[in-house]
Specification:
Layout (H helix, E strand, L loop, with lengths): L2 H14 L8 H4 L29 E9 L3 H16 L6 E5 L12 E3 L2 H6 L3 H4 L5 E2 L2 E7 L4 E3 L14 E3 L1 H14 L3 E4 L3 E6 L5 E6 L2 E3 L5 E6 L3 E9 L6 H9 L11 E10 L9 E7 L8 E8 L5 E9 L9 H8 L6 H4 L3 E11 L11 E2 L2 E3 L1 H4 L10 H19 L14 H6 L2 H8 L13 H14 L39 H6 L13 E3 L4 H10 L3 H4 L5 E5 L6 E5 L9 H5 L5 E3 L14
Parallel strand pairs: 1-2, 1-13, 2-8, 5-15, 13-20
Antiparallel strand pairs: 3-7, 4-7, 5-6, 9-10, 10-13, 11-12, 14-17, 14-18, 15-16, 16-17, 19-20, 21-24, 22-23
Helix pairs in contact: 1-16, 3-6, 3-11
Length: 607
């Protein structure tokens, strides 16, 4: 980088952090307008919208569930089951942004069937797609060239005895079929874009997204308003970092007294490998290489029992990493080239790719309040995930079932203080369930890795915590929000990644092509910026544009803005695979993910 360019970037940073925080019009004019979405640029102030009919169609139901994943579907099913047991008729509606149920579910998971056993005791006879019981577990520490086995003791979080390797999207699709058979109304391709409130402040329901908006934010001739779904109770089951759940947490101060949530990004591929290498039911996990000792993460490899020899391979990187040069995608690709790993994939074919953020905060980062006037949070929307197990689907299902039980209690007779019905017993039901006891046992595992010895100290300390089963009389704290963990690029070693060989490792854009992601091109970018100047003035100046590397889909790139060497951020929103990493890791929390028109996004379709 030239000395002149470094000087310009430093000047921008100094100006950004002067006491007069408001940028002048002349400063802002140096940068092209990026964000045109109405959540940042209100339509009420836009002349182009003055004559547009903004009236919405309204439908009223008893329960609205936002998100058709394992938690949302389980909540819907349980609500209908309980109503039938009581001889009552209720309307339960699920809104799901994917074009079909299960379409946005990143598959290839190991599932504990404990919640499914309760929801449908005869699920095997019903044909639930759990076809691969875990047959063998392996856990290893990888060095650059070798592998050190780590023992797995019975009953410890890494023990997968009794679990199943599944395509989670297939299971969710099956749950959707059971829900519809019970009378649940499911609206796929309808993304909830707005929370609605009663006059007393309680939640009234949600509105689905508008369609027919041009890229510049103006209405097209095809503009159509979304619809309003009013409910007695609204259950938010959006998954990790749900954009409406985030709003609800802020609106009702649900996180007061809790530690900041910390996250990881999980990247995954599906491969068809050579038959002689296929071992259905084999589950492998590793830690160590290629990550340095101060970066939390590891890999998984699951062999599924499919008509073709199929495996799911993935890599998780904690988003509290410090080096802005790190690329989770490139670390994943590099992992597959390990001499004791690449043999599995040689001669095979990669057939799918995807990525998704996951909660890692555990018990300490759960909202202090799981309910609010008019609804509640379930599953990964609340943060229910067991980090050492890398499992949360059974918690999502169980929390959804408990929420349904509490909601039925509230709408069938409990006195209410607000227009929106609050499932008052839900928090106590969670605390008396295996969700709470499990998370309490492993509450110190993730924070153990914040120590002067990094991974090595973390292995010792977390091993002790697991051995104690949560009985230690202390609860460790996390290091802080993930977006505050990056060090300036000048203080970190630049990471030079090897070029892909297109056999085992691949480039980013060819990987995105395998996600099936699709967004209408002529619509406002759903990756919105609160301030269009911050990417260049702050992220590029201090961190060399980390969004170019932490995004696993090539959404963000810095391109020349003029002939003078100035740069601008370009957002390739059509590439987005809805992982939510940018919403989490952006240093100034300037990026906000909102739902795109028509839901859009990846088409994993049970990947």
């Amino acid at each position: 980088m030239s000395a002149l360019l470094k000087f310009r970037r430093l000047a921008r940073v100094q100006k950004l952090f002067t006491p007069a925080a408001v940028r002048s019009v002349s400063d802002a004019a140096k940068y092209p307008k990026i964000t045109t979405h109405y959540t940042i640029c209100p339509r009420e102030k836009d002349e182009r919208w003055k004559e547009v009919d903004m009236e919405r169609f309204v439908d009223e139901v008893d329960i609205v569930i936002v998100g058709g994943g394992p938690g949302g579907m389980s909540a819907a099913i349980r609500a209908k089951q309980l109503a039938a047991e009581q001889g009552k008729e209720i309307r339960v509606c699920v809104v799901e942004k994917a074009a079909e149920v299960g379409g946005h579910i990143l598959s290839g998971a190991v599932v504990d069937p404990v919640s499914l056993n309760e929801l449908f005791p005869d699920w095997k006879e019903m044909g639930a797609p759990l076809n691969t019981p875990v047959a063998k577990d392996k856990f290893s520490f990888l060095t650059e060239t070798g592998r050190l086995p780590i023992p797995i003791f019975k009953g410890w979080p890494m023990d997968n005895h009794g679990n199943y390797v599944v395509r989670l999207g297939h299971l969710v699709k099956w749950l959707g079929e059971q829900a519809e058979a019970l009378g649940v109304e499911i609206y796929p391709g309808c993304a909830a874009s707005e929370v609605l409130f009663h006059e007393d402040g309680s939640v009234k329901g949600v509105a689905t997204n508008d369609v027919g908006i041009a890229k510049d934010g103006s209405p097209k001739d095809t503009f159509a308003r979304g619809m309003e779904l009013h409910a007695k109770t609204t259950i938010f089951a959006e998954g990790c970092r749900g954009h409406l759940s985030k709003q609800i947490m802020q609106q009702f101060n649900l996180n007061e007294g809790s530690q900041p949530q910390t996250y990881g990004i999980g990247l995954k591929e599906i491969w068809e490998i050579q038959p002689e290498k296929h071992q259905p039911g084999l589950v492998e996990h590793t830690i160590g290489w290629p990550l340095d000792k101060f970066t939390y993460g590891g890999s998984f490899l699951y062999h599924l029992n499919e008509p073709t020899p199929t495996v799911a391979v993935g890599f998780v990187v904690g988003l509290d990493y410090q080096n802005p040069w790190l690329s989770p995608f490139q670390e994943f690709q590099r992992f597959k080239t390990h001499p004791l790993v690449r043999g599995t994939f040689e001669g095979g074919t990669r057939i799918a790719y995807g990525a998704r953020a996951i909660n890692e905060g555990g018990l300490q980062s759960l909202p202090s309040k799981l309910t609010f006037p008019g609804g509640c949070l379930i599953g990964c929307s609340a943060g229910f995930l067991n980090v050492p197990k890398i499992k949360g689907s059974h918690y999502a299902m169980k929390s959804g079932m408990l929420a349904a039980e509490s909601v039925l209690e509230s709408i069938m007779g409990e006195s209410q203080e607000t227009a929106g019905y609050t499932p008052k017993s839900y928090p106590d039901k969670i605390k008396n369930s295996f969700i709470w006891s499990d998370l309490n046992k492993i509450r110190n595992v993730r924070p153990c890795f914040h120590n002067p010895l990094g991974l090595y100290g973390g292995l010792v300390l977390s091993g002790f915590s697991i051995f104690m089963g949560g009985r230690e009389p202390w609860t460790l704290k996390h290091a802080g929000p993930d977006n505050e963990s990056l060090k300036p690029a000048s203080q970190c070693q630049q990471i030079v990644y090897p070029k892909p060989d297109n056999k085992i490792s691949f480039d980013l854009l060819s990987s995105v092509a395998l996600t099936g992601t699709n967004h209408e091109g002529d619509q406002p970018a759903h990756l919105t910026l609160k301030n269009d100047c911050i990417p260049v003035d702050h992220n590029l100046a201090l961190y060399e544009g980390p969004e170019q590397r932490f995004c696993p889909a090539g959404v963000y790139e810095y391109v020349p803005n003029d002939e003078g060497g100035n740069m601008k951020l370009q957002i390739n929103a059509q590439n987005c695979i809805h992982c939510k990493t940018c919403d989490i890791k952006d240093p100034k929390q300037n990026i906000n993910w909102v739902v795109p028109e028509g839901g859009g996004g990846p088409a994993y379709n049970g990947m």
